Amino acid sequence: MTAGIERIDFRGLPALRLGTRNGASAVVSLFGGQVLSWTPPGGTDRLYLSPNAVLDRKTPIRGGIPVCFPQFADLGALPAHGFARTRDWSVLTERGSKDYALVTLGLVDDEATRTLWPHAFSAELSILLEESRLDLEFEVTNTGDGDLEFTAALHTYLAVREVEESRLEGLHGFSFRDKTDANRIKRDSGDVLLIEGEADRVYHDVQRPVLLREYDRSLGINAEGFPDVVVWNPWIERSKAIVDLPDDAFRHMLCVEAAAAQQPVRLAPGESWWGRQTLVAL
What we know:
Blueprint: E1 4-10, E2 13-19, E3 25-29, E4 34-39, E5 67-68, E6 90-96, E7 100-108, H1 111-116, E8 121-130, E9 133-142, E10 148-154, E11 157-159, E12 166-169, E13 175-178, E14 184-187, E15 192-194, E16 199-203, E17 210-214, E18 217-224, E19 228-233, H2 235-241, E20 253-267, E21 272-281
Antiparallel strand pairs: 1-2, 2-3, 3-4, 5-10, 6-7, 7-8, 8-9, 9-21, 10-20, 11-20, 12-15, 12-17, 13-14, 13-16, 16-19, 17-18, 18-21, 19-20
């Protein structure tokens, strides 16, 4: 892998490949502004990309790190997870050396987005690759004349060797909305979260990093600006029902997402907001 940034074709999609001299690499699709792959030095891909993902530049890509904006999930009138993940993003900046690679992508409103969501905005996604670390920073600016509100998330699909043998630490004591139980608000009382069935939780106001442990490796997950953490695994029946997932996909993936879901972000004209998610392979 060559250090720096290069333009590539990823299964028919225009994309960027980021690399460092120590062997770290990442692939970013310009469709959706979506990280599709991240491999730390000497390791395997830590992101899950469905082998059944549809890459037709119209359908949301199942896996990697989709950008949910200006709506997370079904929390509004827009299509689920908004429109950012099905738009073409532009490359704003590229910088790199032997030790890091940084790219910033941009998305602005146009006639199609204003038909769905009548607001003027600009969005930037900065992706930084260095050593065993991947940083994503998402920034939104209100470029219109009126206030705007949105929810957002970095819908991170993590690759795991076996989800039932994985342990998620750091969520003890936080309240969460449990979509698998009529959206009831509950409090996490366990030392670790084990995935033993369908999970669809939004943890509120999480104020410390999360650690994913599995076998002989771990992954540190930290967020700034995003107050919520989403944990999602479709389990057996939902995996079978999702057409762009293999039936056994639930065994090899776990979504741990940085989100602003409980309380919408509100911006006055000219104001900006940003949120960051950092993944560190341990």
